[in-house]
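User: Predict the structure for this protein chain, please.
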Amino acid sequence: MSSMTIFIILVCIIALLFLAINLIFAPHNPYQEKYSIFECGFHSFLGQNRTQFGVKFFIFALVYLLLDLEILLTFPFAVSGYVNNIYGLIITLGFIIIITIGFIYELGKSALKIDSRQTITMTKFNSSSTVEFVSRI
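Assistant: Here is the predicted structure, written as structure tokens:
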């Protein structure tokens, strides 16, 4: 049996194992909205509006895609480390620096900040401070 056959069998076993673990331990809480049909062309009625999609999550997906692309483009440099010279190192470091500057710019503009649904309040009890998490529902 070749190593590729063993690898395919191992991947199938792991996938079935994860599926079985999910079916056993995942919570099953059915309710009416899960079973209702939802399509984009229909309007909601009786105040059953769904929440709007936050653009912040789309920005996170784009940042993830950009950093994933960075890994994909720097991987050939890492693999061919013996044949690269100082020119390849400078090009790769320049690319990483440009991506890092863009990421720092996004952090500076607070583009990656998502508003929390929890508020933190500080209360004092007999000279000791505790943190209370109050969730808004």
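The longest helix spans residues 55-79.
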